[in-house]
Design brief:
This protein is α+β, with helices and mostly antiparallel strands and 179 residues long. The chain has a single domain, classed as Aminopeptidase (3-Layer(aba) Sandwich). The chain is 25% helix and 37% strand. It has four helices and nine strands. It has helices at 41-53, 67-74, 122-136, 151-159; strands at residues 6-7, 14-22, 25-35, 82-88, 91-100, 106-113, 141-147, 163-168, 172-178. The radius of gyration is 16 Å and the shape is globular.
């Protein structure tokens, strides 16, 4: 169950209530979507590692930051990229990132949400914020890869207008969103 979204007037933060199952019980939690802060580094790494360790949705089973990730983690206010976190209190429960390409107007995008918070609107809210950011920056398109069997993610991406653009080894598809 989702509550009404509340947006702080002086920030890009969003906050709303979702229900998530933990230890077999439904609990309501206030989820805040906001830009990453340096103080989120440890929580974000733990969350990425948890999603990677599922061994199903990510290309790796452990978070190994690329140069673009390292830059984003160390420079949260740089205008060239956006790294969002979804937080319940001090805990990061999801992330969405857009890193620019090679000056061609393209940004690579990635997203992940902890299992108890999936199908609760967290990914939708992060992606909505990310696409708006990309359009404001004048980017021409966003690209991503996802597993061919990740129906929930594919549905989410299609809802925002992403279309399949190619496939790799039968397990991964590229999707693109013209902006």
């Amino acid at each position: 169950m989702r509550g009404p979204a509340r947006r702080d007037r002086d920030s890009d933060d969003f906050c709303w209530t979702v229900s998530a199952r933990r230890n077999g019980f439904m609990r309501s939690s206030s989820v805040e979507i906001r830009p990453y802060r340096l103080s989120d580094a440890r929580e974000l790494a733990n969350t990425v590692n948890t999603v990677c360790a599922e061994g199903r949705w990510m290309r790796t089973t452990r978070f190994g930051p690329t140069p673009a990730w390292r830059y984003a983690l160390g420079h949260p206010n740089a205008p060239s990229h956006l790294l969002l976190v979804a937080c319940v209190g001090e805990h990061v429960v999801g992330w969405c990132r857009a890193f620019p390409g090679d000056g061609d107007g393209t940004a690579g995008m990635g997203i992940g949400v902890l299992e108890p918070y999936r199908n609760r609107g967290v990914g939708t809210r992060m992606l909505q914020t990310m696409v708006g950011w990309a359009r404001q920056r004048g980017l021409q398109r966003m690209v991503l890869t996802t597993r061919t069997d990740n129906g929930r993610a594919i549905h989410l991406f299609r809802k925002f207008g992403f279309r399949e653009a190619g496939e790799a080894d039968g397990k991964w598809i590229w999707m693109t969103l013209p902006l």
